[in-house]
Amino acid sequence: MLESVMNKSDPRELWEYVLTQVELSISPANFNTWFRESSIVKIEDGIVYVGVPSQFFRDWYQKKFHTLLLKIIRGVSFEYRNIEYLIVKDDRRKPKEVRRDRPNTELPLDEFYINKSDNLNPRYTFDTFVIGAFNELAHTAAQAAIKRPGITYNPLFIYGETGRGKTHLIQAIGNHFKKMYPNRKVFYLTSERFGNDYTDSIQAGTANRFKEKYRQYDLLIMDDVQFLTKREKTQEELFHLFNSLHDNNKQIIFSSDRPPQAIPDIADRLRGRFSSGMTVDIGEPDTESRIAIVRKKAAHHGIHLDDSVIEYIATSVSGSIRELEGVINSVVCHTQVKGIPPDLAEVRQSLRTFSRPTKTVSVKHVVSKVAEFYGIDEESIYEKTRRREVVRPRQVIMYLLREDFSVSYPTIGSKLGGRDHTTVIHSCEKVKREVIEDAELAKEISDIRGLLV
Amino acid sequence: MVISLEKKELGDAVSRVSRFAQRTATSLPVLGGIVILAGDDGIKLRATNLETGIDIKITGTIKDAGVVVLPAQVLKETSASFTGAGAVTIEHAGETAVISTSGAKSTLRTLPYEDFPTLPIPEGSKAKFAIAGSILKSLILSVAPCASVSTIRPELASIFIKAEGGVITSAATDSFRLIEKKVTSSGSIPPFTMLIPAKNAVELAQTIPDDEVTVLVDEHQCAVMWKDGVITSRLVTVSYPDYQQIIPKTFVSEATLLRKDFDPALRLTSVFSDSFQKVKLKFDAAGKRVVLDARNADVGTTAESIPAAINGESIELAFNYRYLQAPLSLFTTENISLSASGIGRALVMRGVGDSSLLYLVMPMNQ
Q: In terms of pTM, does the model score above 0.90?
């Protein structure tokens, strides 16, 4: 007999056997219409799950073919207790796409697919996440949270300034979680969407359904919770949701652009909940990390950039990773239009449009901030002293005025107590050289820049 | 089964229902048929092609209850040939049905009813709401032409409909252009998203009435019901790209021009466009005009400039003229704005003062 040699646990072989039997029992037209696109998706606990293309099929299978199919699979083995019908997603049936050369540029849609049931963007994974000193802690915390969800760090609260990769990290957690625990439910949303959903449900009179919907998740990820500021009712709803999920050991992950204590106008009890688990921040990416990010992003687009170009982009684009991405995208676009990656000169040229408008600032303001930073007397900067503790800050001031605010050398000289422009040039060059090797100096300068914003 | 009804009533109903029947002969023959049901609910016509399905009620008198399936094409042509007023009688006995008017009498072979599938009506577990049929139609028909005709990527051959915060949005894209229509709903509509195959949506939109209809949405199926009918369609369950992110936020140049200038200029230029249907669009900031030109080695060249207000720098982009022309009929305003976001980047078209419709098109490689 055929069934004696068949591997019963293999869904494909079982389905092929089922088909041969069904074909004998119904008309060819019926067979072709109803069975051509179906398959066995899985066999679990004695239940055979048959995947069908739509509800038309599911209803008709249940009505017309259920008895027949059950009889056939029972004939194979009594282990099979029942058959259930699942509507399979369309991409399962999707054939490989044939790419044709078209003269028209396509929209970059591929990058923006999000999964409807969990709202996660599959583009965000740990594979594409660049780990550096600035986000190492956050990454480790994320890994720990995935290993023992709901237990180790619950909630996990990740904060950092915009464009540092918070969303990437928390979505990567969601995507990884999905892979590790396929039967558990993940949901990602922004706090704004949560608020809108809540308001909508109140208007539609379905508040209970709203509550149920969110309580079913095993992992809830909420992005940008700082937007809950002043939305009291939404906060209250989140508070209750939090308690319910937390009591059931469901993992919760929040992100925000500032630590829980610094979010204004938020109920204290919610603030307390936010910080009751693990609170971890993502700092500013260091130069090495930025270089790694640029390299990875460019490689992701299939473009090989010269090392000097990568370094130039990484060091000259200040600000968030998102801005860095913007520059890389323009480089990618350039490559697609011209066919070759841009060289250093071209990148420099195009970066001009990206650089922020130069701020005008009074020299006095810079001097006072820097003096304050180094804890020296403001007046001593203007004096002709060569004391070590003054020389360094003065050089830093010159460097900053030149680099960040494009003040001319002679102006800097005259404003800082009538110094010759060659002295200024020397100082700027010196700091420029040292800042590359001296991590401490680099840190000082970046801190001062923070003060000047 | 014996029923009698008005010629016009039958003709109208059959032409509405027959488009939902399967048109290819390769599959189950009964799917190419229309079911006529005469029972306690009155007379109903039903058809399905396993993508969409329809069930509508018509008025007539039932002399003897029963059910019969007749081939849609034959029934459609038969009822279309009726002229004038008067009654039609359909009488079913055994393997045949007789359709008779005062003078004519046709005998049709019937199809087996037991093979005819049930129409799945969703419970509306995801969303259930009432909306004016005319609004639903405009949401679907405004965006449907931009959906992909190829079904290789099922999500792009579909229309994306989403309700959130009292606004219903529909969108479609074939990856070369994208269109989005927004309507503010008057009633309360629960938040939901669905992805309906564009072909199904168009059939639905062309059949439903303008008055209020009820929409039911489930995970895999949606239905639109009105007082004497229901249409059901399968939904696509793959994810849809988060297209909002590709709508440019900043522009290098924006041209505002009259639709009545742009339309004929495009038509002229298209005559001279090449096999790629390429036209060049130049924003001339200094000359305060937009210049369209096309070149075809076999035909010749043409150029037309139209007055426009340009805000930003001069820029030149090439497009497939069909992609520029397609949305023009959808804008209701006299002025339209064309916003360019750079070389090799998308161009956004909007009606001036009308934020309900947005059209985005990618340029051709130069």
A: no
